[in-house]
Design goal:
The protein is mainly α and 447 residues long. The chain is built from 15 helices and no strands. α3 packs across α6 and α7 runs parallel beside α9. The protein is globular, with a radius of gyration of 21 Å.
Length: 447
């Protein structure tokens, strides 16, 4: 018997499963960075102060959303494990409870962020026209926060059911709607940067409504309860707590990076906003493979298939590094052509181009990290990710502060900042996650 043929057949089967989930997930994942890119392009032509203000405000808003991404990740893992164990009704019940948690949490956080907007912007080191524009954008966009969190939770349910196509279509519609609303409100109605925030908020609420209807329909068919259950909501919160800590470490690293960029001057801060938007787009593209890994790993561990779990780990890692290299090549080579799309300031264009070369070279490391994150989240290994997330943050803090203190003037400062984040910080994450998957401690079977 030719075992090489069996190996190739198994590999092709695994590739088909990965791509069947990853390709639609890619379209859905890039919707959020596309929102940011559209906002950046529309607002960037209002002026440098507006673009710099958007950089700070969108970072704070996405920090809140990023902290709550456990609503998607924990839900994906719990739903996938229950489906793998043949318990579809219980899987959907867990998903519905997660959506109730998202709606309540989003309402509370939206109110808090609206009230705290001036203080939060000031704490980031902004003042004058930059701070004024940042507060305006943040306050007009916060009403969409409940919608953003419900989108996370409902998307997590559908990923756990191995349905990544529905979030794709909703995200595509949302991206198109957001572009139209932003242009109409910013320039047509004349609201300026406030129109950009309002357009994004309305789009997110609309997406949440559509995805919620899809999940509710599926829950009714499976016989799951639609009312919120205190026990189920608490179980979702408890399962997501380690991922909240892990997300906190990531968001603190990003906030620190924006703080450093603010200290490098308005030109570098404006350039950071554009480069960060490109980084976010590439990161979410790579995260499509992580989403496939989450769903497949959770399903296989729920069914007790350890061998298949290892096969999926190996193959998704290969895909992640290769995809990172390809994206990196495009980013590094395309900076000079991308920059004019976002700003007419020649100094900002140079800063963008230099920083994009840096992130392009380092993108394969990101591919490795994002896939391993997805694998460990799908396995429910949140506690390990929480502890190591804080360790990597401790490694990054002194490096970032050194950049703020000693980075050279001009575009080189922004380039060195991305060496610190995309290089030092991401490499620390690569090492900690890589060491974990070399063991069997993360592979816990059953639902």
């Amino acid at each position: 018997m030719d075992h090489s043929l069996d190996d190739r057949s198994t590999r092709r089967s695994t590739d088909r499963q990965i791509l069947a989930l990853a390709v639609p997930a890619l379209g859905a994942l890039v919707a959020e960075p596309i929102f940011v890119l559209v906002d950046s392009a529309v607002v960037g032509h209002l002026g440098t102060a507006e673009l710099a203000g958007l950089s700070i405000a969108s970072t704070l808003l996405l920090t809140v959303v990023g902290l709550c991404v456990f609503l998607a990740y924990a839900t994906t893992a719990s739903v996938a494990r229950r489906v793998g164990a043949g318990r579809r009704a219980q899987a959907l019940q867990a998903g519905v409870d997660g959506m109730w948690l998202a709606a309540g949490l989003g309402t509370v956080l939206a109110a808090a962020l609206w009230l705290a907007a001036p203080w939060a912007i000031s704490a980031m080191g902004a003042d004058g026209a930059v701070a004024e524009n940042a507060v305006t954008y943040l306050r007009w966009s916060t009403p969409g926060l409940p919608g953003m969190l419900v989108v996370l939770a409902s998307t997590g349910v559908l990923r756990g059911l191995q349905d990544t196509r529905t979030p794709l279509w909703v995200a595509a519609g949302g991206a198109a709607t957001n572009a139209v609303l932003n242009i109409a409100l910013v320039y047509g109605v004349g609201m300026g940067i406030a129109g950009s925030g309002l357009g994004t908020a309305l789009t997110q609420l609309g997406m949440a409504t559509v995805l919620s209807a899809v999940v509710v329909r599926g829950a009714r068919r499976a016989g799951a309860r639609l009312r919120p259950g205190a026990g189920g909501i608490w179980a979702n919160a408890r399962a997501g707590a380690p991922l909240l800590v892990r997300n906190l470490s990531l968001r603190l690293a990003i906030l620190l990076t924006v703080f450093v960029a603010t200290g490098l001057g308005a030109v570098n801060l404006a350039g950071y906003q554009v480069v960060n938007s490109i980084w976010g787009l590439a990161a979410f593209a790579l995260d499509a493979l992580a989403i496939a890994a989450q769903a497949l790993i959770g399903h296989r561990l729920g069914a007790g298939e350890v061998g298949q779990t290892r096969a999926i780990l190996r193959r998704t890692l290969q895909w992640g590094v290769a995809a990172g290299a390809l994206l990196g090549l495009v980013i590094a080579a395309g900076g000079w052509w991308f920059a004019p799309l976002f700003t007419s300031d020649p100094d900002v264009r140079v800063a963008i181009t230099a920083a994009m070369v840096v992130i392009g070279v380092l993108m394969p490391i990101a591919g490795w990290v994002f896939v391993l994150d997805g694998v460990l989240i799908g396995a429910g290994d949140g506690r390990y990710l929480a502890w190591t997330g804080m360790i990597t943050l401790v490694v990054y803090v002194p490096v970032a502060l050194a950049i703020r203190a000693w980075a050279p003037d001009g575009p080189a400062g922004l380039a060195w900042l991305w060496v610190a984040f995309a290089g030092v910080f991401m490499m620390a994450r690569a090492v900690t996650t890589g060491l974990r998957v070399r063991t069997d401690a993360w592979m816990v079977v059953g639902d």
